[in-house]
Amino acid sequence: MARMIITGGTVLTMNDAGDVVFDGHVVVSGDRIESVGPGAYAGPTGPDDRVIDARGKVVMPGFVDLHYHTAIGKGFSDHLPLWEYLDTCWYPLIRNLDAEAAYWAAAGSYLESIKSGVTTVNDMYRRLPDLGRAAVDIGIRAVLSNDVALPEHDLDSLQDNKDAYDAVHGAGNGRVEVYVGIEWLPLASPELLRDARILADELQTGIHIHLNESLTEVEDSKKRFGMRPTEVAYDAGLLGRNVIAAHCVWLSDREIALMRETNTQISHNPSSNAKLGNGIARLPEMLNAGINVGLGHDAAECNNSRDPFQVMKFASLMHRASRVDASLQQAPDVVRMATRNGAAALGHETGELSAGKKADIILIDTHNPMFLPLAPNDPAHIYSHLVFSANGSAVHTSIIDGEVVMEDRRLLTLDEDEILKNANEAFLRTRARIEG
């Protein structure tokens, strides 16, 4: 089997020891990392082996966007809080999707993510078979879930989610998975949460849900159910190791304890929470409780960017500002949240450059002003630039499942111009349907 040899770069392994290997190499065989080590690779090579020169580049695990929505439009309803934004912008758009619009919206979303260094998305949306086609075609690793709600809200049902699982789970040589998705408590009930857990267990898959995103959600839950959202989810048996709970901005002490007790995974989405005016999650308390927390951008409609570097910066600065404490969320810890923590939340063998792990790898070009100055052999300086200075335009190469998907910022799987053209036409067609 031909191998890929990435050599001469600064390798951020994100392994247990946090090793950073200067002038190191990574050898990929098939979809797995064969070895990681210092210096130029000196082992045997075959005539079909490919060598990638990584001099002047950081070699690291790809980012895992742990809470994600494919988005067909952005830049509308920017002034509205969450509930009004959903009713004005989000729900009308996703209720009027056709199959081609869903495909091109996903392709456009995944294009920006890949070009920003994201190799895995945890995407809750509609028309999952069409999203699955887009994920397979563009080459990204995608965990997909439906937007399940009670029937009166005209979104998806658990049957839709099961049908999607049957249709696309395991596609793309296993790169595409299907979870059970629940929109949020205002559009759900305890009975729907119990049924979602039953379905997830039957399918042996995970669950993706919004919880405690806004104060209005919390108050609605207390009024309707006499409990806070996470308490409702706990009583329904929904929480657990294979659950990604998105946002969790307004967790009480008891709810944090319930998350810890059930080993539920949390996606922290600071830039979206800020834009929608939802507040600042209690991230230090979550981490101190031992909860695994990854990072997500949420959706371009309520974030306007899918750039994980921006999310990392928000994930540090917001908490330092609100707590008046510059010691919080240090750069290496934030990078770990964006890579290894997200992978662990999804149960993936990614997020780390170590022998035997999946080969989801990005190369970041340090020959640009974002990395100026750069002290030689100083891991702290590299981490600092990644979190506080860089943006997605620094990503040079993206490798997913052992395949080069983007090289020198050029997508190799689909035609970028075609994606941009068709994604924009899909938006215009969907908006016309809403206005029509």
TrEMBL record:
PANTHER family the record matches: AMIDOHYDROLASE-RELATED DOMAIN-CONTAINING PROTEIN (PTHR43794:SF11), AMINOHYDROLASE SSNA-RELATED (PTHR43794)
GO molecular function, one term: S-adenosylhomocysteine deaminase activity
Domain of life: Bacteria
EC class name: hydrolase
Record's signal peptide: none
EC number of this enzyme: 3.5.4.28, 3.5.4.31
Keywords: Hydrolase
Protein's recorded name: 5-methylthioadenosine/S-adenosylhomocysteine deaminase
SUPFAM superfamilies the UniProt entry points to: Composite domain of metallo-dependent hydrolases (SSF51338), Metallo-dependent hydrolases (SSF51556)
Origin species: Nocardioides soli
Domain (Amidohydrolase-related): residue spans on this chain: 58-405
